[in-house]
Specification:
306 residues, alpha/beta, six-stranded mixed β-sheet, four-stranded mixed β-sheet, 9 helices
């Protein structure tokens, strides 16, 4: 039986300065659940969302995380960090093996524009193998809104997709529906771990390869510790969920072309009428002709009905 012990930590984090909190929580979960293989936390959990706190790869934070992986004997996916390379900043998830080595480094492909301005998009898909268990793919937060990306990770063999997230906005309910759909249409485990506290609204979730709900949390600190049966992924991809759709095989065997996806130029040409990607501004309504005639700067009237 191929299985993967995963703990998703929904941390009640402050706006920044959470490295010691991460260290305490990882040590605690490793002690409580000695059967775990991997721990994952939310996006930008350690230093928050300030680009001013970007560090170079291999900096002090990474060194402490590497030591933490060695100490606990765990694979560690510490959310993400803003990482500076030359004149660019990336939203990066490093993956540490139990020896403290960075075996993968994923740069967020779809920064949350226009809000995450100044962050360079990544170019490379990342999956990594855990010996004796299976293959894991990495995406970050807004990436999951682009099904082409998640499908690519599944095509690369990912049986579990980890999605460190930092959502503190009203669209969390929509995000959960997208996460569940991604699990179902890619026949994989989907681990969407959000932050609580000052950085997020919580509501992390884990969905199974049939789109089934394994766990959905509340708004505060939560520890999700699960033993994922990766043989189930192989079985569902072979037979379909409950003997129904064999989605990935149908995608593999289809002769359908997707012209919109063949080149970046093709989709830009077709979708150009949407206008530029920029920060929304307050909508200003032009006064009607009648209103303008009465004087746009007239005093408001108060009407009282007795």
């Amino acid at each position: 039986m191929a299985s993967l012990g995963v703990a998703a930590l929904q941390l009640a984090a402050g706006s920044t300065g959470n490295l010691e909190l991460v260290e305490r929580e990882v040590r605690a979960v490793a002690k409580r659940f000695p059967w775990l293989d991997l721990v994952v936390i939310g996006e930008l959990a350690i230093h928050g969302a300030s680009l001013d706190l970007a560090e170079p790869a291999g900096g002090e934070t990474e060194q402490r995380l590497a030591a933490l992986a060695v100490e606990t004997g765990l694979w560690l996916v510490p959310g993400s960090l803003y990482e500076r390379r030359d004149d660019a900043i990336f939203n990066t998830t490093p993956v540490f093996n139990p020896s403290g080595k960075v075996v993968a480094r994923y740069d967020k492909m779809f920064p949350f524009l226009p809000y995450e301005a100044g962050v360079e998009p990544g170019r490379d898909y990342v999956v990594f193998d855990i010996p004796g268990a299976g293959r894991v793919g990495i995406a970050i937060c807004y990436d999951m809104w682009f099904p082409e990306m998640i499908r690519t990770l599944a095509g690369m063999g990912a049986e579990v997709i980890l999605l460190p997230t930092m959502t503190n906005t009203i669209d969390r309910d929509v995000e959960l529906s997208i996460a569940r759909a991604n699990a179902a249409i890619n026949q994989c485990y989907f681990v969407d771990v959000n932050l609580a506290g000052d950085l997020g609204v919580g509501r992390s979730a884990v969905y199974g390869p049939g789109g089934d709900v394994i766990c959905e949390t509340g708004a505060g600190r939560e520890v999700i510790a699960l033993d994922l049966d990766l043989d189930q992924v192989s079985r569902l991809r072979d037979r379909g969920w409950q003997g129904l759709g064999q989605v990935l095989k149908s995608f593999r065997d289809s002769d359908v072309r997707f012209p919109l996806h063949e080149t970046a130029g093709a989709r830009r040409q077709v979708m150009q009428a949407m206008g530029p990607l920029e920060m929304p501004e307050k909508e200003r309504k032009e006064p009607t002709e009648d209103a303008a005639g009465e004087g746009a700067d007239r005093k408001p009237r108060l009407t009282i009905i007795d």
